[in-house]
Amino acid sequence: MAQARDTKNDGFPSDFLWGCATASYQIEGSTEADGRGPSIWDRFCETPGKVYGGATGKVACDSYRNWKDDVELLRSLGVDSYRYSIAWPRIQPEGRGKPLQAGLDHYRRLADALGEEGIESAVTLYHWDLPQALEDAGGWPLRDTAYRFAEYADIVFRALGDRVGRWFTLNEPWCSAFLGYEYGEHAPGRKDRAAAYRTVHHLLLAHGLGVKAHTAEGLAAPIGIVINAMAPRPATNGAADIEAADRAADKGTALWFDPIYGRGYPERHLAAMGIAMPIEPGDMETIASPIDFVGINYYSETVVEADPSGPEGFRHVPNPPPMTEMGWSIVPEGLVRLLARIRDRWPVEAFYITENGAAFADTVEEFGRVRDRERIDYLRSHVAACKTAIDAGIPVKGYYVWSLIDNFEWAHGYSKRFGLVHVDFDSGKRNPKDSFSFYRDTIDRNKA
Ligand code: FCB
Q1: Which of 67, 346, 355, 366 could be bridged to 402 by S-S, CB 3.0 to 4.6 A?
Q2: pLDDT digit string (tens) for 318-329?
Q3: Cα(375) to centroid of ligand 1, in Å?
Q4: Please, which residues have CB within 8 angstroms of residue 107's CB and are 6 or more apart in sequence?
Q5: Burial of residue 156, with CB atoms counted within 10 A of its CB: 0-12 exposed, 13-18 middle, 19 or more buried
Q6: Burial class (CB in 10 A: 0-12, 13-18, 19+), 445
Q7: Which of 39, 85, 402 to mutate to test the pocket of ligand 1 (most atoms within 8 A of CB)?
Q8: How many whole angstroms from 240 Cα to the centroid of ligand 1?
Q9: Which residue numbers are catalytic?
Q10: CA distances (Å), origin 297, targets 64, 367, 382, 405
Q11: Ligand 1 pocket at CB < 6 A
């Protein structure tokens, strides 16, 4: 008998995990159903001038009600794993206290339906929809918010622990901290650098407390965190630009990976920013609680050059083409560089690419066809980059497309479409694009 192959057509290991991702606030709608409390994104959307076109998540893709449509799409796509997030305000409307059964039941039903199709639930506990009541009490700059997260995480572990195949504590804490509290571009829209760094610490503490709660529950499903790791490329091969790029990577890599891997905070970065972290005894041990993998969200790579006049010694240069509709350069080899950089510095056991995808201005043809050739090219080149990384000995174990469906793209409202499936935001109708067929065939070719 022929020996079983351990790789499939494109050379991926046969146990490579193929998936796609969404997040609660971006798809669910029904923001007032079943006792859900308001989140910071509901409030931010109501604030004039914050979100493009005055868009809100009130209806979004209507996935809270029409989740069966999403499961059906996932089934026909053939994914192994679906990464979705749980809306904290559906579980604890005020961010504390007794959980709402209706909220837990919703995610139980979803996980069960996925399970029936053989699709793993890969659950993100926090994808940015903080209960507004916790922001009113001080938000992430307040230490108590980390304890509230731990309580919430424990509730979810108990309720869904037997149904979830993979856990992620936080999604892209860099965005929560800096877009949310320093640049004011995301909810809650504050512009306060000191608050942003307190947020960094409390998010990491929340992550560590969440991992400890997971261990205490004795759950078998592995746990990790999702980082939008960023390591800009130097504009030239000159020593000054190379050194500048190295420094520029601190905020998007070392600020997260150093504490998670037990090395404390990167002093070079904190010194450059003039920041002292609000560390209490035991915090750094909690933050360094062992995890099973790291999720990396990758879309692009930026470029920096030396700038001795700035506090950090670098400045960004304009993004070179080709670009997506987000104005993000398309640089698949940047993913390989980023993973190699992280592998060289931190002992990450396994990587999952937890988000990768592209927004383009899709055209719907007369009979509903969306020939999104550019998105297909983008996805194909980034899947190939995963294979290049694996060949270089980097333990990339899975890949998730962002996103299953067009959805609420934060401050861009509904103006940027990332989906494999087109959504008509008036009728809620879902319509697979050509990229859906491309990804389905890619999975099919490579599945065991
Ligand atoms: C990431 C977010 C995700 C999505 C993509 C385009 O930063 O995690 O929710 O909006 O960007």
Answers
A1: 355
A2: 989 999 999 999
A3: 16
A4: 86, 123, 156, 159, 160
A5: buried
A6: exposed
A7: 402
A8: 32
A9: 172, 355
A10: 25, 34, 12, 17
A11: 23, 26, 171-172, 175, 228, 297, 355, 402, 409-410, 418
